[in-house]
Design goal:
The structure holds 2 protein chains of 2 kinds. By secondary structure, chain A is of the alpha/beta class. Chain A has helices at 16-24, 46-55, 73-89, 109-116, 137-154, 166-171, 211-221, 242-249, 251-257, 273-291, 307-320, 365-368; strands at residues 11-12, 32-37, 59-67, 93-99, 127-131, 157-164, 174-176, 181-182, 199-205, 227-229, 232-234, 266-268, 297-303, 325-326, 329-332, 343-350. Classes of the chains: A alpha/beta, B alpha/beta.
């Protein structure tokens, strides 16, 4: 088995994330930047609250405001108040608004998010923290990919945090874009002539609200060839029946369209992104061996639903350059319950924890003076 | 249970034979064979249709693997019609393949090129270069998969294309493939980069003159026996609506040039057009007439609209034929039906609506009596009306059931009232025959729909209603049929008859329609849903008027033609909403409908909306409205 990037992985959950952050960032030589979503999601502010409490003025922030037309005005007001709360928490911060869709409804969120960081410098920080909680997948994935490259190049620590609350992920509803497409920066060779003979394994993360969107991904993937489907279901989970409920919802797809039976189901721990990451890589390793002489195997991910599991999918995609197929949300239509009781999950993606020295000669404001 | 009706026709089939087995030749025959045979491969062909109208399926039949499989199996009787149709389209000549077709879905990669910070001409060059490289790769891949060695493949180049020939890798199959792969890889790297390279850093390979469409005349293949065939290359650009509008326009202009020898088709949805262009296309029924300088439809390109707006009756009949054919092919895929020789969907759908229970008929009779008293209609006049109803026997019916007769009588009495009935004791009416309202199919239609709403009498029954409710959209037809087929299969498993009672069909179709409308998931779906539901409610109100002025009722909203044409300029928001509704089968535009000496443009509700609200599938009944009223409905959130 080839060595994996995040095995072992430094990750925290179930209450340990806050403790880790409180001790790790208490070191006065650490300066950090948090990049988070300033949207309607009640989880928007959680990680920033923890970090600002520890780092104080050693923290600066870039808060991304995803703009979509046609959503509820109530959601926009929630976004405004979350944005205000975030800038209050981190005075050295800026709000960076950008459209997720162009005027012709093409998905441009990932590209625009990256453009907002174009002029950003990283010389004043030791640590970059991305809070994925209130960022859409189409924005968070390319962003983390870019920041991972930057962290490697500039010798910085890169952390990703998510406030885990699957019930909020389930509650958020919206109008899907009509197109299933690979995420910006996550094409993974899909569609190239050189990969036209590979056998595709699709690992969709299921969520009831995005049933149609998942159907669209399947329809797009199956236009050119047959695909094997192994849905990812949450278990263990806070609601132990969540997986069973999803099987009920997707019964028609399983039986008549995707041709999935009980042997194809993959259960992953709902609270541990690393569990999904490892499971996906194990499956990919096994298939790579089997399909080596048959044109190869290509694993395709579709991280709908739980943000924590999406983080695991992101790690797997970053490591193996898996294509990620997704259907972006044109506009959100439901208001999730206010006040998140979810817990913080932290994954350290790059830096000291993995033996990569971090450039400690940061140029903070005080140093400049 | 594996239900093929739930599977998209465009989904991948393990082998081409399985794909061809579910293909009905009807739409190809109807839309393409009618076109001038040569034009399909000479000019640019623009094909437009709503989602699920069969664009991709049609394109897949013209791809080399499908055509090749068709010829391999041409001796099998079931393929005979398709072979004949494809011969009619010029894809097969003298029993041999004439065309080497490939389909390139434009949903991926290409639109991203337009986001680069480069001048438009560079972005267009990158788009066309990637397209051309992929077309070459697809043609060669199809030939390789069919067993040809690339050493036996070459191209016939245009005589004046020496320099361009070198740029595409020469005439040999192997070098052509290698060059196209290099180009694709280089462009893919640019498209997939998180931070695209500066213009000056673009690899020469992607900006150099790689233009195989300008060079290739024919693709020549030599069989193992040494026989050479000169195939006409055809590229089908599918889902072109995914491109940026400026990119789409640029691509069309690039492909419209007559010197290109490669046959090229562009398939897109109607909403790829600017609202103004879409409205013009809709009202003039000319496919589309994109505003390109110096370009004229029919001279420079061939427009084909998959939902034809003229000869609607003919088109509806053609769709029914195609849908029934398609359903039979799908049924044959299901062992449970095949084993019982149940090969026709229409044979599973019973259309004899059972009589209403006696108590309900009596209740209806009391209602009619009460109406007679309220309307002050004399017994003798009622008797005359009843005799007219009794004497009426529509085609296809031996006798009109009593409940329908009663409901017809009620409609007629209300019509009498509207004409100014004299009074209860006015027995001496002159020329009663001329005063009596006419008993015809419109009155029967009104009676049927009134009974639907009053007693839930099954209304959407039988294969024709199923076809008509599909808005001439193949995918919608399959989705609706899937529900019915599933229940029929379950009946068989439980040892019950496969035939579905009208009440079951009616109930399931309405349930499905409600579900579909609630689940609409396309841009502006929420606003579209609100507007069409408001329009449907207004139509229902008109439909249920006791004198049934529109017979079976209304299912459309009429706007004067000139007002409709001005919508993109005067009410841009409404124009965009209507475009989304039309593109997704929520509404259909019926232009230039003459009524009351005026020319109307009807916004006809889609079949799904019609069923959800219990309206008639019969066309023609509409509410007179105006563009400004509709625009304020949209502004006020319907």
């Amino acid at each position: 088995m080839t060595k994996r990037l995040w095995d072992p992985c430094v990750a925290h959950g179930e209450g340990a994330s806050e403790e880790f952050m409180s001790t790790f960032f208490a070191d006065k030589t650490r300066r950090a930047v948090i990049i988070a979503g300033a949207g309607f999601d009640p989880r928007s502010t959680r990680a920033t609250e923890v970090l600002s409490g520890v780092l104080g003025d050693r923290l600066r922030g870039i808060f991304l405001r995803e703009e979509r037309s046609g959503g509820q005005s109530a959601l926009s007001s929630l976004g405004d108040s979350n944005a205000k709360r975030l800038t209050d928490l981190v005075p050295k911060s800026r709000i960076a608004p950008f459209p997720v869709f162009s005027t012709d409804n093409a998905t441009v969120g990932g590209r625009r998010a990256i453009e907002t960081l174009k002029s950003e410098t990283w010389t004043d920080v030791t640590d970059i923290v991305v809070d994925m909680s209130a960022l859409s997948v189409g924005v968070a994935f390319p962003l983390v990919k870019l920041l991972l490259e930057l962290a490697r190049k500039n010798r910085r620590n890169l952390h990703v945090v998510v406030t885990d609350d699957p019930s909020i992920d389930e509650e958020i509803d919206g109008i899907s874009s009509e197109k299933a497409e690979t995420l910006f920066g996550f094409k993974g060779g899909l569609g190239l002539h050189d990969t036209s003979d590979v056998t595709i394994l699709w690992l969709p993360q299921l969520t009831a609200r995005r049933r149609k969107a998942l159907g669209r991904v399947h329809a797009t993937l199956t236009e050119e060839q047959e695909v094997d489907v192994c849905p990812l279901l949450p278990f263990p989970a806070r609601d132990p029946r969540r997986g069973d409920k999803l099987i009920e919802v997707f019964q028609e797809e399983f039986e008549s369209v995707w041709r999935v039976d009980a042997r194809d189901l993959i259960y992953v721990d709902e609270r541990k992104p690393v569990d999904l990451y490892r499971s996906v890589l194990d499956i990919d390793d096994a298939r790579t061996r089997v399909f080596r002489k048959l044109g190869g195997s290509q694993t395709v991910l579709s991280p709908f639903g739980s943000k924590v599991l999406s983080l695991g999918a992101l790690m797997a995609a970053l490591e193996r350059d898996f294509p990620v197929m997704y259907v972006e949300t044109l506009a959100y239509t439901s208001t999730p319950s206010v006040g998140s009781g979810g817990e913080l999950v932290h994954v350290w993606l790059h830096g000291e924890a993995y033996g990569q020295a971090v450039d400690a000669t940061v140029v903070g404001e005080e140093t400049e003076k | 249970m594996d239900n093929p009706f739930l599977k998209r026709a465009t989904e991948y089939y393990r082998d081409e034979e399985a794909f061809l087995a579910v293909i009905s030749p009807e739409p190809i025959r109807y839309f393409l064979r009618e076109a001038k045979k040569g034009s399909l491969y000479e000019k640019l062909v623009n094909i437009r249709g709503t989602p699920g109208s069969g664009k991709t399926t049609m394109a897949k039949v013209f791809e080399y693997p499908a055509l090749s499989a068709l010829l391999r199996n041409s001796s099998i009787a079931t393929y005979g019609e398709l072979v004949d149709t494809m011969t009619g389209c010029g894809a097969i000549v003298d029993g041999k393949l004439e065309v080497l077709g490939c389909r390139l879905p434009l949903e991926t990669d290409y639109r991203e090129v337009w986001e680069f910070d480069y001048p438009e001409n560079i972005k267009l060059t990158l788009t066309t270069t990637l397209l051309q490289a992929r077309a070459v790769l697809a043609w060669l891949r199809h030939l390789q998969q069919d067993g040809y060695d690339l050493a036996d493949v070459r191209i016939d180049a245009r005589p004046d294309a020496d320099a361009a020939l070198t740029a595409i890798g020469g005439t040999a199959g192997t070098s052509l493939l290698e060059r196209a792969r290099q180009i694709e890889r280089a462009l893919y790297k640019v498209v997939g980069a998180l931070v695209p390279p500066e213009l000056g850093q673009l690899d020469d390979i992607v900006t150099n003159a790689y233009r195989p469409f300008d060079v290739i005349d024919r693709i020549v293949v030599r069989s193992k026996e040494g026989e050479e065939r000169r195939l006409k290359p055809l590229v089908i650009l599918d889902d072109a609506h995914a491109l940026h509008p400026a990119q789409f326009r640029g691509l069309q202009l690039a492909l419209i040039r007559r010197e290109i020898r490669v046959a090229r088709w562009i398939l897109a949805r109607l909403d790829v057009l600017h609202p103004k262009e879409a409205f013009e296309a809709l009202t003039e029924d000319r496919g589309d007439e994109t505003q390109m300088p110096g370009v004229t439809a029919s001279r420079d390109y061939l427009p084909i609209m998959l939902q034809s707006l003229d000869e609607r009756r003919k088109h509806r009949v053609a769709f029914r034929r195609m849908a029934m054919d398609m359903a039979s092919r799908y049924l044959l895929q299901m062992e449970i039906f095949r084993a019982r020789s149940l090969q026709r969907l229409e044979n599973l759908l019973g259309n004899q609506v059972p009589p209403l229970p006696k108590s309900k008929v009596e209740e209806l009779a009391r209602h009619v009596d009460a109406a007679q008293r309220r309307l002050k209609i004399s017994d003798s006049r009622r008797g005359e009306l009843k005799s007219a109803v009794d004497a009426y026997t529509p085609e296809g019916m031996t006798q009109v059931p009593p409940e329908l007769q009663l409901a017809m009588l009620s409609v007629l009495m209300h019509r009498m009232e509207k004409r100014g009935q004299a009074g209860l004791f006015d027995l001496d009416l002159p020329e009663p025959a001329s005063k009596l309202p006419k008993v015809d199919s419109a009155v029967l239609g009104a009676a049927r729909i009134h009974l639907l709403h009053r007693y839930d009498r099954p209304y959407y029954v039988g294969i024709e209603d199923l076809c008509d409710a599909s808005s001439e959209n193949a995918e919608q037809f399959l989705r609706l049929s899937a529900e019915l087929v599933e229940i029929s299969a379950v009946n068989i498993i439980r040892g019950k008859p496969a035939l579905l009672e009208p009440s079951v069909q009616h109930e399931k179709l309405r349930e499905k329609a409600t579900h579909v409308v609630q689940e609409w998931d396309f841009p502006r779906a929420k606003q579209v849903r609100k507007v069409v539901e408001s329009l449907a409610a207004m139509c229902l109100q008109k439909t249920l008027e006791p004198n049934a002025p529109l017979g079976a009722g209304a299912n459309a909203y009429g706007i004067l033609q000139e007002e409709f044409e001005a919508i993109p300029d005067r009410h841009p928001e409404l124009a965009q909403l209507l475009q989304a509704a039309i593109a997704n089968n929520a509404l259909t535009v019926v232009p230039r409908h003459s009524c009351k000496n005026k020319e109307w443009c009807l916004l006809e509700l889609g079949g799904i909306v019609v069923m959800r609200h219990g309206l008639t599938l019969k066309r023609g009944g509409f509410l007179e409205g105006s563009a400004s009223a509709l625009a304020s409905m949209v502004r006020e959130g319907a």
